[in-house]
Design the sequence.
């Protein structure tokens, strides 16, 4: 949070001069609408656009069970597949609000948001009254079940695409523990 706080403490309208609004900017990014239209930019909604990012759905196992034990020799993928068979479904999509969002696929409620460190330096721009659209987390996420040498995990890999030169990986095996 220290690095994020450093970047959010800068006023995008005043040459990135340090001010005392870092915590307010963080609240704004989290969807709090206090100060919109006065201190901060007026938004049409609290989520950024999903311009180029396509959703990735994560629910049960990614691979067919009958072929799975051929993956990684004697390490049974089928055991992992059974353990996640009833996993709550999530939809992950990148937004030009600087976040990868995770929504409950059944309810549509956002349950998770991740900000890649590569977008920290420009997050404060999102609050500026003179903000002009920029790309942030614009790439489509990809999810695979992978063996890490000890166990199977569901891994999401995302990119910034037009938002910058960076990739990130998250363990999404167990929703709520990302």
Sequence:
């Amino acid at each position: 949070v220290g690095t994020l706080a450093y970047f959010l403490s800068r006023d995008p309208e005043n040459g990135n001069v340090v001010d005392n609004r870092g915590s307010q900017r963080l609240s704004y990014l989290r969807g709090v609408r206090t100060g919109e239209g006065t201190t901060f930019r007026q938004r049409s909604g609290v989520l950024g656009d999903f311009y180029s990012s396509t959703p990735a759905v994560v629910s049960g196992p990614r691979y067919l069970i009958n072929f799975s034990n051929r993956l990684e020799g004697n390490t049974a993928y089928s055991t992992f597949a059974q353990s996640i068979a009833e996993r709550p479904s999530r939809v992950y999509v990148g937004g030009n609000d600087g976040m990868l969002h995770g929504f409950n696929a059944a309810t549509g409620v956002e349950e998770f948001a991740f900000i890649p460190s590569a977008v920290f330096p420009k997050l404060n721009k999102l609050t500026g009254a003179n903000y002009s659209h920029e790309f942030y987390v614009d790439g489509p996420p990809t999810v695979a079940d992978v063996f890490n040498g000890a166990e199977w995990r569901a891994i999401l890999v995302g990119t910034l695409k037009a938002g910058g030169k960076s990739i990130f990986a998250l363990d999404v095996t167990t929703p709520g523990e990302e």
User: Anything to note?
Assistant: The chain has a mean pLDDT of 89. Residues 7 and 121 are 6 Å apart (CA to CA). The radius of gyration is 19 Å. The longest helix spans residues 22-29.
